[in-house]
Amino acid sequence: MKPLPVNVTNRSGPRTQSRHQTDGNARKCRGSRCLVLLTVGLALICVLLLVFIILQHITITAERDLTKSYKNTVEEFNQTINSLQDNYTDLMIKNDQLQNNFNSLSQKKLELESRVDQLNSEQGDLWGPDDMFVSNEEKSWSDSRQYCRDRGADLVIINTEEKQRHISSLVKERVWIGLSDGQQEGKMKWVNSPLKRGFWLKGEPNDSGGNEDCIELMPSNPVLNNWNDHSCSVKKKAICEK
């Protein structure tokens, strides 16, 4: 008995068709996966781009805010500097004003002190009802007389023993009196009257050196013998009398 012929076409047809379907399904599957992966990749890229854009926006915003803050800080700093400069200028002006006021007050103080000294000098040391005073400045005989005259007085005249004792007891240093022989050598004369009596130191007047024309009272010597002729240019205090 002959074997039956094998139908190759029938056997291979369904297998080949099944394989083709499987390959098609595989290709479809791979295509879907690729599409999904591509979609996911695109989505990831979009997310990354979005994150990058957000970060860039944040960075730009931060830089802009920082720049604005820096500008505000610089402006405030400049305003502070200008304010300090104005305050410094005001202080310098006030300092100059205070210095000027101080100088003015110092000048007035000096003027007042000078005036006080002048008043003290004018007043001198008054001795009661005699209207006599000792000058506060040492001057030559002629300048001392002018000093007395400027104050409504003149150099003192001593024409009695009582007055000689009184004056000798009051002064402690050598002083000019109103007696001289400047107008005529050897002829003693008071400032406004002739000499009547003298209270000379022993041996005086001697016109030593030919240049002793003015008379001083020397209280360290005996009260009735303490007149001495001396150079008129020597500076010493004087007794003034109104």
From TrEMBL:
The chain crosses the membrane at residues 35-55. CDD domains: CLECT_DC-SIGN_like. GO terms for molecular function: carbohydrate binding. Residues 1-26 are annotated as: Disordered. Residues 7-16 have a biased composition (Polar residues). It holds the Pfam family Lectin_C. SUPFAM superfamilies: C-type lectin-like. This is C-type lectin domain-containing protein. It comes from Onychostoma macrolepis.
